[in-house]
Amino acid sequence: MSTLGAELQKTIRNLEKLRDSQHSLSDELLSLLDKLYEQQIELIDAAIKKDTPKYIAATHALSEAAARTHAAINDLATLDKAIKKVADAIGKITRLLAAVA
Amino acid sequence: MIRTIIKRLGLHLVLPLLPVLLLSACGLTSHQIIKTQSFGSATASMGKLGEEEFINIRRDIIAMNKELVAIDNSKLANSLNFDKAVPAEDTSKRVAASKALKLYGELLSQLASEDRTEDLQKSANALLDATSTALKDNFPDDKKSALTSVVAGFGSLWIARKKADAAKRIVLAYQQPVKELVELLQHDFSLEDDAEGYIKAYDVTAKRLKNASMRLVNAGDKYSVLERDRAVQALVLSETNITRVAELSNKAKNALKGLQKANVELVSVMNNQKYTTDDIKEYARQVQELVNSYQVLSK
Known about the structure:
heterodimer; A: mainly alpha; 4 helices; 80% helix; globular; B: mainly alpha; 11 helices; 79% helix; 0% strand
């Protein structure tokens, strides 16, 4: 199973591609990216146990977000759905981080 | 993890000095001397690099986080820990471990050279101090005072033959701690997707600043020229650091791989004296490449 860190990095990379491919930047996309960068730093800083239900749920959500954002690179019509998946993953990471705070 | 490694590194670095002073053996072959000096030099260079770069990385991350707060008005003063993921305490632990590695390399070089006893004593004392700093409360007073008295005995007991024996014993004793420290440095300089070390935090911070500055730079006439100018400076800073991150990670990766290999080779040559002239030439070439990469890396 892929790690949370790896899925998070994939999602960020896809969102960066989407950001850089657009002529006018989407505030929503920029904000999501900012939040993911912030969470990435917090995850580096925190001591996260990898066998908890919250970790598994966050990793699974990020895996879906990574897949949807990758699809959106090729089909911008699916971007809204991808953004919802990213927002869902952010929520699950927030809960994971709250549990170790 | 780092505390364990520092603890092991520190004790392993210093304790082998004890028997070394009491035993004598045959001298090193010229090949062993070359290997020891070269490895000592490479180890010292890598330690020096780590000592400098951990501080540089932390400083750059703090500077970029300040810029982020300056250009992004959604950020509040208390919403951002400027040194999150690279706090002073963690940084000083890494610096202390790197310093111990550097001093170990220097001591090894001196053991294989014709340096004066006073220089050796100075190096050994420096190593003792670095270990004390790295271990702090985990370095018991009784062990510290025992080591201090042993180091003080260098002057009267030290002769060339014993130096050779010391080099052999130290190299063999330090093989594992050096291997572990190299692995720790590899983790800290890795940009793999699931990496969680210092260079990763550096990379993420730079990309976050780039993302925030792009919002302003691409916003047309929504912001004043002064605001735009600040954002452009932040964008340039982030791009510069993103490039530096990639270069630093790549070069450290190669240098550490080389150091790991040199560590294994040095142990091998200490145990086996049957090396040909070609082996020596090849090793010298490898060491030269390593030294070159360290020099580029530390600029």
